[in-house]
From TrEMBL:
<protein>
    <recommendedName>
        <fullName>Copper homeostasis protein cutC homolog</fullName>
    </recommendedName>
</protein>
<dbReference type="Pfam" id="PF03932">
    <property type="entry name" value="CutC"/>
</dbReference>
<comment type="similarity">
    <text>Belongs to the CutC family.</text>
</comment>
<dbReference type="GO" id="GO:0005507">
    <property type="term" value="F:copper ion binding"/>
</dbReference>
<dbReference type="InterPro" id="IPR036822">
    <property type="entry name" value="CutC-like_dom_sf"/>
</dbReference>
<dbReference type="InterPro" id="IPR005627">
    <property type="entry name" value="CutC-like"/>
</dbReference>
Length: 225
């Protein structure tokens, strides 16, 4: 569960980037859609194509087409249906995160999704950064059975939350994989690793002013881990 060397996960919002990342030195990808929305459930036929062609692990992001991390009853029903379809199609794991209107973890709904995914692992999305107490949130995610959580320490720019991330890693990294995001790039990944003790990273690997995953950027990040 906890590698000696750093682990690099690339989130891909369309199939071209997914193929680039699956052929790269990345350890795993998260397949999603609609980068401008922060990622929603991708096209299942594209996922099946990727699973048939590549052996690298592919997690699938399951998210409703709605704002924030809330979902209606209809959207939650769709999430469950989508999750089961992707599970049958060979997903290696899932990424999702549901909050209630107080920006607290919606324990009941998240637990129901985890139960449907078993025995596959689940990562809680960056919805964690929108909760009022990140440490309490991570503790709750551990209890619910999540294998990982994506976080920038509660701030958009990970460089502004290195102290918070170091504390989280010291407290919880033996119980849950803490995947660091927040504009992670080859320019800062070594700094974040060295100052927080992080071993798991989650990145788009899309350089500024570009639209697709860049294989050279993945190589540069992986070399520093």
């Amino acid at each position: 569960m906890f590698p000696v060397k750093g682990f690099l996960e690339i989130i891909c919002f369309e199939i071209t980037s997914a193929e680039t990342a699956l052929q790269s030195v990345a350890d795993r990808i998260v397949f999603a859609a609609e980068r401008s929305w922060g990622g929603i459930t991708p096209n299942i036929d594209e996922f099946r194509y990727l699973k048939n062609k590549y052996t690298k692990p592919i997690y699938v992001q399951i998210s409703p087409q709605s704002e924030a991390f809330l979902c209606s009853d209809a959207e939650f029903h769709q999430m469950k249906s989508d999750l089961l379809d992707f599970k049958k199609s060979g997903a290696d794991g899932f990424v999702f995160g549901i909050l209630n209107r107080g920006n607290q973890i919606d324990s009941e709904r998240n637990q129901e999704l985890i139960s449907l995914t078993k025995p596959l692992p689940c990562t809680f999305s960056n919805a964690a950064d929108h909760t009022p107490d990140l440490k309490e949130t991570v503790e709750q995610l551990v209890r619910l059975g999540f294998h990982g959580v994506i976080t920038s320490g509660g701030k958009k720019d990970v460089r502004k939350s290195k102290t918070e991330l170091k504390d989280l890693i010291e407290l919880y990294s033996h119980r849950i994989n803490i995947l660091i995001n927040g504009n992670i790039s080859s320019e800062i990944i070594a700094e974040i690793k060295n100052e927080t003790g992080a071993r798991f990273f989650h990145s788009t690997a899309i350089p500024p002013y570009e639209s697709y995953v860049n294989e050279d950027e993945i190589k540069k990040m992986k070399m520093q881990l």
